[in-house]
Amino acid sequence: MKVMVDTPVWLLALTRKTQELNETENNIIQELAELINETRAEIIGPIRQEILSGIKISKPFDQLKRNLKAFPDLGIDTADYEKAAEFYNFCRKKGIQGSQIDFLICSVAYNHKLSIFTIDNDFFNYAKYIEIKIHEIRDF
To answer: How far apart, in whole angstroms, are the C-alpha atoms of residue 135 and residue 3?
Structure first.
């Protein structure tokens, strides 16, 4: 099964120095490396935008942009936007709030039968109410 890799996972792997990482963070990065090696890691344009947003210095921005080119964007279509709105509305009725991009990630993952690799606790809350699967890190 392919896996939608969420923004915080990419940022952890692409922007943090190895010596700054704790054991949990190292495991997350190792899992991402395995998913990449297995050609199972997926990304969508809004995640790419989130990763690149906020990098004010052009040299690191350009380097990160080049590194991300290895991962083509999974296409987003009308059904994905409609399902995102459905997920948003349903969760809102249950008292769960989230960003539009989060629900778009959920809908693309749902429609393409992907799990979501994330360290964002919001997704664990969404998973209580909508049909998404959270990717679990394997034991290494």
So the answer is: 7
pLDDT tens digits along 46-105 = 999 999 998 889 998 999 999 999 999 999 999 999 999 999 999 999 999 999 999 999
The residues spanned by each domain of the chain are 3-134
Provide the sign of the torsion angle of the four alpha carbons 13, 75, 116, 2, taken in this order.
Answer: negative
CA distance 68 to 125: 28
Q: SS3 helix, strand, coil % of the chain, rounded to 5?
A: 55, 10, 35
- Bridge partners (DSSP) of residue 116 are 4, 134
Find, among 52, 89, 59, the residue nearest to 73 by Cα: 52
Per CATH, the homologous superfamily of domain 3-134 is 5'-nuclease (3.40.50.1010)
**Rounded distance between C-alpha atoms, residue 26 and residue 105, angstroms:** 24
Task: Name the pTM for this structure.
Answer: 0.94
| 19 band by pLDDT with thresholds 50, 70 and 90 | confident
